[in-house]
Amino acid sequence: AQRRLGLKGVRTDFIQFHEKWETGMSIAIINKDGDATYEFNTPAAWDGLSTDKALMDLVAKSGNSSSIINNNNDKNDDDN
To answer: How far apart are the first and last CA of the chain?
Structure first.
């Protein structure tokens, strides 16, 4: 999945992986009126997400859509 995102020009340098927990899944339960309730498996990988200065800087400039496009000139190996 990470390779496919990169091929589409999406930045992958901020993708995080968890050593033990899998990607989160949810189950949607639809009642007779069409309203949904959701059950989430826990813990899941998103429970282990972490932040650092580089990630917060990316969030701060996220209003600029170019921040999610892969640009090798902007990549800093210290951000990984």
So the answer is: 18
Q: What is the token pair recorded at 69?
A: 């496009």
Give the residue among 56, 52, 58 at the shortest CA–CA distance from 71: 58
Q: What are the pLDDT digits (tens) for 36-80?
A: 999 998 898 888 888 889 888 888 888 765 544 444 444 444 443
At residue 11, what is the residue type?
R
- 80 token code pair: 């990984």
The answer to whether residues 40 and 24 touch, using CB atoms and an 8 Å cutoff, is yes
Kindly state the average pLDDT of the residues 18-35: 91
What letter would DSSP give residue 23? P
Give the containing element (helix H, strand E) for 70. Answer: none
Tell me the CA distances in angstroms from 65 to 10, 21, 58, 73, 80, one per residue in order: 11, 30, 11, 16, 20
